[in-house]
Amino acid sequence: MNIFRIVAFLILSFFTSIWVPIDLLAQVRVSEAEVNIQKVFIEANREKILGNYENSAFLYKEVLKKDSENHAAAYELSRIYDVLDNDDKALSSIKMAIALDGENEWYQMFMADIFEKTSKFKQAAQIYEDLIKKDPNLDYYYAKWAFYLVKANMPADAIKAYDQMEAKIGISEEVSLKKHRLYLGMGNQKKAALELQTLANAYPSNTDFRLQLAGYYTQIGDANKAETEYLKILEREPDNPKAKIAMAGSLKKNGHDVSYLQSLRNIFEKEDVDIDIKIKELIPFITKIAEKEDAELASASLELTNVLTQVHPKEAKAHSAHADLLYHTGKTEEAFASYEKALEMDKSVFAIWEQVMYIDVEMNNSAALMKHSEDAIDLFPNQAKGYYFNGIANSSLGNNKDAVNSYRQSLLMSRKKPRLQFDVLTRLGEIHHQMGQYDKSVSAFEDAMKINPKDYNLLNTYSYRLAEQGAQLDKAKAMSATSNELQPNQKTGQHVYAWVLYKMREYTAAKDWLTKSMSNGGDKDPDINEHMGDVLFHLGKENEALDYWEKALQLGSKNEILNKKITDRKLYE
Asked: What is the DSSP string of 437-452?
């Protein structure tokens, strides 16, 4: 009897008679007790909703004290203990609820959740197996049964569960692929293939399933079966691009890369073939060309990217792929134009911005680099390289303070990118040197050395700057010697070593190293010629020194002091 019925009864009793039978009063008293229990239950629910879980648990326990058969309270108490991560009490409470109402499937499923949480996957699987016996037509039960069997490391039993599921609902992509993966994990390639075969046969109009089967045969090295499946696809869809590309793949497999690329032209010319399929085939060849020069391969690849840009003129990725190939084949200006076309169509790919900025640096186009780096920072404020390139732009334009700020920002954002950190620190070392902040310069170079102490360029740069500062010359000499061990017969390393020796007043040794540097191409370098003149001047050979200074001037030296050296026939240091 609910509260409304009780109230109605009491009102009726008052108006009809003061006398009430004893047994009816007992019923009213029992009903009032039930009402009080319901009030506590409702209050427990309210506390749960408010997030007051401890209060809620206390109230649900009060309900159970007054009504030990209240399975709903036991269930709700279990849920509260689950939220409080008290797994033992959660399990005990849900077991109580199930003992009171064994037919409630929600209680059963919640107990399975608790078993999952405590990694008792076999027990969770058993619950769903039992539920299936009660309701064998519910797909969800089969899926959860198999899921927990997989988690329990019982793949063979999981497959049997999926088999039963298939017997009820028929062949499906989801179940077939799960069984395929389970067979793979068990090392049973034959049955793994059979699952894909069954799926492909069940849905003959869906060629994607047969493509998966053919791809799997390729993966396990069964080329004949793969070819059979690709031919079946082509029988149904003669222009299927994936199948046609795969059939042409024998050329690639046998090392005939150029012939393979040429065989793809008719596929690349089709507008209805997804551009991503085409680019996927090109990427390995772009990578090959980037790593190793191959004019014939580059020509065949460029022919295809030309087709791409014609067939998909509004696709940024077509122009980007074309630009990549142009760049890696030394056609920098053409690559730049193609990258800019790609950016006109899609500004959302940072990799394209990055390539454009690299080319700006290569072409020494500081104004363009400033514009591109600022735009990139606006669009990608979390990309450290945007700030790095902005630092380069500011540095080359003489904005040293702004450059330092950009480099510092890049440094903060690239903690997990040691290569970028190294590059930034090296440039910071240089710019602090230019600003006369020698302590900061040394600190930056030292931090770069921690990342890569054997970098040839860093060793040369750091040695040279220490020599210019007249500081730590012994260290500069040791680093320069290491550089020449790492890269013998390199004009730059030999020049730096000579410059350090010069600063240490070891003029004869410096002359010998400068001579080595010149024999390796340094004779065309204005700085090396000027330094040879300086060394010879110190050795008392003024006329020879003058010849080298004049040659440095002819080679385009921009050192303002050089003219004074020549005019006054003296050194200015």
From this structure: -HHHHHHHHHHHHHH-
> Which residues, other chains included, contact 378 with Cβ-Cβ below 8 Å and sequence gap of 6+?
none
Percentage of residues of the chain with pLDDT beyond 90: 77
- 382 three-class SS: coil
* 570 DSSP 8-state letter: S
Q: How far is CA 255 from CA 214, 251, 260, 297, 492, in A?
A: 21, 6, 9, 12, 40
Measured between alpha carbons, how far is 322 from 279 in angstroms, rounded to an integer? 10
- In the chain, the amino acid numbered 452 is N
From the centroid of its chain, how far is CA 253?
29
Distances (CA, A) of 36 to 2, 4, 206: 11, 13, 62
Does 14 score more than 70 pLDDT? no
Residue pLDDT, tens place only, 351-400? 999 999 999 999 999 999 999 999 999 999 999 999 999 999 999 999 99
Q: Which residue has the higher pLDDT, 240 or 116?
A: 116
Q: What is the distance between the alpha carbons of residues 473 and 15, in angstroms, rounded to a whole number?
A: 114
Encoded tokens for 73? 């309270």
Query: In b/e form, how buried is each residue of 528-549, taking b as 16+ CB within 10 angstroms?
Result: bbbbbbbbbbbeeeeeebbebb
Q: What residues does each domain of the chain span?
A: 1-118, 453-524, 529-573
Give ∠ CA 419-422-428 in degrees, rounded to 5: 145
* CA distances for 170 relative to 115, 165, 176, angstroms: 30, 8, 10
Inform me whether the pLDDT recorded for 10 exceeds 70.
no
For residue 266, give the H/E element and its range: helix 265-268
The rounded distance, in Å, linking the Cα atoms of 146 and 144 is 5
- In this prediction, residue 8 carries a pLDDT of 34
CATH class of 1-118: mainly alpha
The number of CA neighbours under 13 Å toward the Cβ of 24 is 7
Answer whether residue 327 shows pLDDT above 60.
yes
pLDDT of residue 241: 84
Q: Given this model, what pLDDT does residue 509 score? A: 97
Contact 383, 406 (CB under 8 A): no
Q: What is the CATH number that goes with domain 453-524?
A: 1.25.40.10
The residue with greater pLDDT, 233 or 13, is 233
Judge whether 1-118 and 453-524 match in fold: yes
Asked if 124 and 148 count as a contact pair (C-beta separation under 8 A), the reply is: yes
Residue 253: its pLDDT value, please? 64
4 sits in which H/E element: helix 3-16
Query: What 3-state class would DSSP assign to 139?
Result: helix
Query: Would you say 166 and 178 are in contact if contact means Cβ atoms under 8 Å apart?
Result: no
Q: Is the pLDDT of residue 62 over 70?
A: yes
Sign of the CA dihedral with 45 first, then 46, 52, and 55 last? negative
Token look-up 């404020």 returns: 381
